[in-house]
Design goal:
Layout (H helix, E strand, L loop, with lengths): L1 H12 L9 H30 L3 H24 L2 H23 L14 H9 L2 H20 L1 H5 L7 H51 L2 H9 L3 E16 L2 H7 L2 H22 L2 E6 L2 E6 L8 H16 L12 E15 L5 E5 L1 H11 L6 E4 H7 L3 E11 L3 E11 L24 E6 L2
Parallel strand pairs: 4-6
Antiparallel strand pairs: 1-3, 1-4, 1-9, 2-3, 4-5, 6-8, 7-8
Length: about 450
């Protein structure tokens, strides 16, 4: 029953709203509608009391409020003209308590009925806003001061109200105003809580979408310091993976089959990258790119990338393409310096670029199906822990002849033969992967 009444009140309170109203406008209209309904119902007490006392003019004032308020509410619901409805209601809330006090005979005789006028500036705060409520409060203060100034004149012709009834009226005025103020504020607060909860849900959804586009540290920096972000990383490891024969495959398989299949393959790659601390940069068609060491340093970026690459081969082992052909991929890896930056204004992305990225791409494009091909720079950081097979690449675009290595697998425990045995010089010292942050303000 209680829930049904609450739903009915919400329906009635929102009867004057428009589909394109903002949440703030909806809330203001609902609060004012709710206030007019509540005060109209409570006015029956004063109509009854003053009729009982034979104060017909005093009884006519709350009765007039009920009639005018009901008429203006019906007019608002039918026409949606909020400004006129708002002005009429706020003006009546302000003026009628003072008129009633002057009619009955001042502060004492009316038992403080002008307290009801406080609902006018209080309501204005809720459905007009802080700035627009100030004139209504000033008018309330001015009328109160004026009433005090003429109280001696009014009290001379005050109505004879029995003391017990005067106390009851005084208590009802205090309780009625308190009930109205509490009910309106509670209704406003409840609606505000619902709006804030909805906002938090939307913010969480937006945050998830943002984190699907940008790495978390980069997204946080952009929120705190809007502008263009560009960081230099002294050493990271880049991985490219590409599905062999994808172009011809996509010509023979429809999108309704291809897209879910490709999503399943890349989702398994995403899980591997997340597990080993790599940052997925992008996918373009059947090409997958991830980097270890951006946007945060990775203590063992080359090893983590090697583990992801081996995991990719394991993940697709035995899988087939939608047309039944065996699924094969090429993987290329390189280690070196890059720049990580947020690129673009619309639909921006976090990207890395530099010669190290180009080399990793060449490792993939000149690789062998079902194999992991790494550059010499990566090999030097992995050869103590993994088994490799050397390969010579001729006339690599932009590079000339290059040494490359096929990653076969992990070395058995205790087998630490490295590049020294092959006569290859190691890097002099590990290069720091900490980014050098550069901000270019727009």
């Amino acid at each position: 029953m209680r829930a049904r009444v609450a739903r009915w009140l919400d329906t009635l309170a929102n009867a004057g709203t428009l589909p394109d109203d903002s949440e703030e406008e909806r809330l203001g209209k609902a609060v004012l509608t709710y206030a007019s309904l509540l005060i109209t119902l409570l006015s029956f007490f004063w109509v009854t009391v003053y009729t009982y006392l034979g104060l017909w003019l005093a009884a006519a004032i709350p009765l007039a409020y009920q009639v005018i308020s009901t008429a203006s509410l019906l007019y608002f619901i039918s026409t949606k003209r909020y400004v006129a409805f708002r002005f009429v209601q706020t003006l009546m809330m302000l003026m009628l308590p003072f008129l009633l006090q002057w009619t009955v005979g001042g502060f004492m005789a009316s038992s403080g009925v002008l307290l009801w006028a406080l609902t006018s500036p209080l309501g204005a705060l809720l459905f007009l806003g802080t700035r627009q409520a100030v004139p209504w409060f000033a008018a309330y203060v001015g009328l109160t001061v004026f009433s005090a100034a003429i109280d001696g004149y009014l009290s001379a012709g005050a109505a004879d109200v029995p003391t017990p009834l005067a106390i009851v009226i005084f208590a009802m005025n205090i309780l009625g105003v308190s009930l109205t103020a509490f009910a309106l504020t509670r209704y406003f607060a409840r609606r505000r809580e619902l709006a804030m909860n909805a906002l938090r849900v939307e913010q969480a959804r937006s945050e998830r979408l943002l984190l699907n586009v940008l790495p978390a540290p980069v997204a946080q920096r952009l929120k705190q310091e809007p502008g263009v972000i560009a960081d230099t990383f002294d050493e990271v490891t880049i991985l490219f993976a590409d599905i062999v024969g994808f172009t011809s495959l996509s010509e023979r398989v429809g999108p309704e089959e291809m897209v879910p299949w490709l999503n399943d393959v890349f989702s398994s790659f995403d899980r591997l990258a997340r597990r080993h601390g790599l940052e997925k940069i992008r996918t373009i068609g059947d090409s997958y790119m991830a980097v270890a060491g951006v946007p945060l340093p990775h203590p063992d970026h080359a090893v983590a990338t090697a583990e992801v690459a081996l995991g990719m081969l394991d993940a697709i082992a035995g899988k087939t393409a939608p047309n039944g052909e065996p699924l094969r991929i090429r993987i290329g890896i390189n280690t070196g310096p890059v720049v990580g930056a947020v690129i673009g204004l619309d639909k921006f992305i976090y990207d890395v670029y530099g010669d190290a990225v180009n080399t990793a791409s060449r490792m993939e494009s000149r690789g062998l199906p079902g194999q992991i091909q790494v550059s010499e720079a990566t090999y030097l950081r992995l050869c103590d822990r993994y088994v490799f097979e050397e390969r010579r690449l001729e006339q690599v675009r932009g590079k000339g002849d290059m040494s490359a290595y096929i990653l076969i697998g992990r070395k058995p425990e205790g087998d630490n033969a490295g590049p020294d045995a092959m006569g290859i010089e190691r890097p002099e010292a590990p290069i720091s992967a900490a980014p050098v942050q550069t901000r270019v303000t727009s």
